[in-house]
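Example record used in the benchmark description.
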Amino acid sequence: MGMSRRTLQRKIEGSGASFRSVCVDAKMRKAAKLLVETSATVSSIAFELDYSTASHFSRAFSKQFGVTPLVFRHSKSSFN
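Model output (structure tokens):
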């Protein structure tokens, strides 16, 4: 992006968002995409997104989307 992490953080926080929330949102969008478009396990997705455990990832995912990763995957795959 051509700027340091700290500069990016300041710009994001200057717009009223928190750096952490932007990072979590990006991780969750990627998780949702991986759940729908791949057959990767929840554990492997958690590892790829740098969560320490699958359960920690599942809690974060559920907080963001209101359902567990597996329920999300099954609900989206039933429309395809």
